[in-house]
Design brief:
With about 220 residues, the chain is mainly alpha-helical. It contains 8 helices and 3 strands, in the order H-E-E-E-H-H-H-H-H-H-H. The protein has a 3-stranded mixed β-sheet with strand order 1-3-2. It is globular, with a radius of gyration of 22 Å.
């Protein structure tokens, strides 16, 4: 039993080291890769954990069930989110909303109109910022942009363009099958649709370039 657990631990560490090698050089000093913790964590996600540090968290038990190419493309999707600056940050909005609500209640009690307006304004602004950050359409656009950049990263690391699209597409199909709810499944489906359109455009560009290249005599 101990031997089996040690073998799994060594395998997990090897995978984390392998993924670290897939980071672009400019990210390697401040992007950490760690096993996910908690109950039912996402397969892979990333978050800001300090002023100049980002952590990619992976549910290694589920991660190992994916093919290597699928893992690589999903990993580069998270890397792309970091490069696009679209990862969750330590938000001040919830704190500001709580302060604003508390202030509004307090000023109602003391009946100070100016401070009440300021507190309500803080509530409104922080609420608007929270809506912006969690807007489903915005989140989807960011995910699709990260998929496009993940394809570019894959070619940077030696993938042929068709294989990069194929690997990410198969990974998204698997995520669709495993999605815990309809909302997430729909998001993955829309990402897959966008990826197929992008792949078709890339294929058309490649064919056009081949047609424009003069044949050797």
């Amino acid at each position: 039993m101990t031997s089996a657990a040690s073998s799994v631990a060594r395998s997990d560490l090897a995978e984390l080291r392998r993924l670290k090698s897939l980071l672009p050089p400019e990210l390697q000093s401040w992007v950490m890769i760690e096993p996910a913790s908690g109950v039912n964590p996402p397969l892979i996600t990333c978050e800001e954990i300090g002023k100049d540090e980002v952590e990619i968290q992976i549910d290694l038990a589920r991660w190992d069930q994916l093919a290597k190419d699928q893992r690589n493309l999903l990993f580069w999707h998270e890397v792309a989110r970091i490069q696009n600056d679209t990862i969750p940050r330590d938000g001040w909005e919830m704190a500001a909303l709580a302060i604003g609500l508390g202030g509004a209640v307090g000023e109602l009690w003391v009946q100070d109109g100016l401070l009440l307006l300021l507190a309500l304004g803080l509530c409104g602004f922080s609420g608007w910022r929270l809506y912006q950050r969690n807007n489903s359409e915005k989140v989807l656009k960011e995910a699709i942009a990260a998929d496009e950049r993940a394809i570019a990263l894959a070619t940077r690391f030696g993938y042929e363009l068709p294989n990069a699209y194929k690997s990410l597409g198969s990974a998204l199909k698997l995520l669709i099958e495993q999605a815990p709810n309809r909302r997430q499944r729909k998001r993955y489906e829309l990402r897959l649709q966008a990826l197929k359109k992008s792949a078709a455009k890339a294929k058309a560009r490649m064919q056009a370039m081949q047609n424009d290249t003069p044949a050797e005599s």
